[in-house]
Design a protein that fits this description.
The chain is built from 15 helices and four strands. The chain is mainly α and about 475 residues long. The radius of gyration is 23 Å and the shape is globular.
Length: about 475
């Protein structure tokens, strides 16, 4: 997790001497002292535990964090944008996400002490940038936990034929997410990545095959269109775009994951493998299900296959809903825990105090995510708000700023930099447009849907949308 000496701003943070967690007689709270042999052993154990990710394991962890709920919103986005625009945006934004992740990786290699996204923001904007991005970082991860809580509630309601109050299923989902988020090392949950990937692939496959068979049995073509829906306005279009953006949100955790790599320079292999897999899965999911179902496609997409098949698909998708959701809580917890106990052995989570503080923190983050899910109980708008406020920055305009401020060498208008200047300027502009337009659209859509009575109230027993 941490090298022998890490930097925080301009000050080096060495593992020894450290601040004492347990104050002995005559010792002042916060006093710097030498580590005991036991503490040194705990630190060595912690270093080994948090420094064992290779590029293949990193790919698996990125898949766990990335390929989940985003795919479930794709067909509805295609229905709004049309097949042509949907495909172009899905592929184009995916390629830009791969590039921005490459920039993030270059920053990590150049500045090894950067452990989380906020550390990179400090390099660009000082203390203000560090605190601002810290808040954005944690809120985005909690939003992701909330979106998985909401999806878990929808899944359980569907599987039980809406057998009980949705709040109860929301609580059950939150408890599962809490338990799966408890392992603090990313390497420890890598094995779950294979289950996660198989889960989402099978769920999407079942939905695609079932909707295709249903369309064939109907004996008539669906009403899909190559062009945007006729009744789609600015708000609808931006909601659809932000749902695609949400699908490419893996950059937010990249610093955190790379900090556990034993060979960080191998990250390039991981992001290319992940990026190509994402583009293929998202484009095929959006295009095929939309072409089979047509304009009546639902979000999340697993609801589009009819009652029985939806139950099968949601049953198969339960692992991805909870495994992918839990890792976001783990990343947020690791950031907060590491910041609070920066100069302490407690940060390694291999002492009694470390485990107690870790469990309490994960519980708090999970409850926060559950509250968000109940307060904004409709899938597309929850993804849209998250994309607009946070992913627009983490995936687009902040990596572009990193290239200009931290990576670039020479004039941005020099011959060797001109193409990269244009590419990063494009990423920056896209990010700002999504931030402004998407935030307006998602808030307006929530207001309109509440006014029209199309959605349930917050903290209600009725089904989420």
């Amino acid at each position: 997790m941490m090298s022998d000496t890490k930097k925080d701003g301009d000050q080096a943070i060495a593992p020894s001497p450290a601040l004492s967690d347990q104050v002995s007689d005559g010792e002042t709270v916060g006093q710097v002292r030498e580590l005991t042999d036991v503490e040194k052993a705990q630190m060595q154990d912690g270093e080994a535990r948090f420094n064992r990710l290779g590029w293949k394991r990193l790919t698996v962890i990125l898949i766990v964090e990335a390929i989940a709920l985003g795919s479930l919103g794709m067909p509805a986005a295609f229905a709004t944008l049309g097949m042509i625009a949907g495909t172009i945006l899905c592929v184009g934004l995916g390629l830009l996400a791969i590039y921005s992740s490459f920039v993030i990786g270059q920053v990590k290699l150049k500045y090894p002490h950067v452990q989380h996204y906020a550390d990179a923001a400090r390099l660009m904007m000082g203390k203000f940038g560090y605190e601002l991005v810290s808040v954005m970082f944690v809120l985005q991860l909690v939003f992701l936990v909330g979106s998985h809580t909401l999806t878990g509630s929808i899944a359980f309601l569907n599987l039980s034929n809406y057998g009980t109050c949705s709040i109860i299923f929301g609580v059950v989902s939150a408890i599962i997410l809490f338990l799966l988020a408890l392992p603090p090392s990313f390497a420890e949950v890598a094995i779950l990545g294979y289950i996660d990937f198989a889960s989402i692939t099978l769920a999407i496959g079942v939905t695609i095959i079932a909707t295709g068979i249903q369309r064939s049995d109907a004996g008539m073509a669906s009403d899909w269109s190559a062009w945007p829906a006729k009744d789609a306005g600015f708000v609808d279009a931006f909601i659809a775009v932000t749902n695609i953006v949400f699908a490419y949100s893996f950059a937010i955790c990249q610093f955190s994951f790379m900090d556990e790599m034993h060979t960080p320079k191998d990250f390039v292999k991981s992001i290319w493998v992940l990026g190509i897999i994402e583009i293929v899965i998202y484009t095929l999911t959006g295009a095929l299900i939309y072409s089979f179902v047509g304009q009546d496609v639902k979000s999340p997409a697993l609801l589009s296959a009819g009652s029985l098949v939806s139950k099968i698909a949601f049953g198969v998708a339960l692992p991805v809903i909870f495994i992918s959701g839990s890792i976001n809580g783990t990343v947020a917890g690791r950031y907060i825990h590491g910041r609070v106990y920066r100069d302490s052995v407690t940060r390694y989570i291999n002492t009694s105090k470390g485990w107690i503080s870790w469990i309490v923190l994960i519980a708090f983050l999970t409850v926060f995510g559950w509250v968000l899910a109940e307060a904004i109980p409709f899938f597309s708008d929850l993804l849209a708000i998250s994309s607009s406020l946070f992913i627009s920055g983490f995936t687009f305009y902040l990596p572009a700023m990193m290239w200009f401020m931290l990576i670039r060498q020479g004039s941005p208008f020099s011959k060797e930099n001109l193409v990269w200047t244009g590419l990063n300027a494009l990423c920056f502009i896209i990010g700002i447009v999504i931030l402004v337009g998407g935030t307006y659209a998602s808030i307006q859509d929530i207001i309109d849907r509440y006014a029209a009575g199309e959605v349930r109230g917050a903290f209600s027993c009725s089904s989420p949308e």
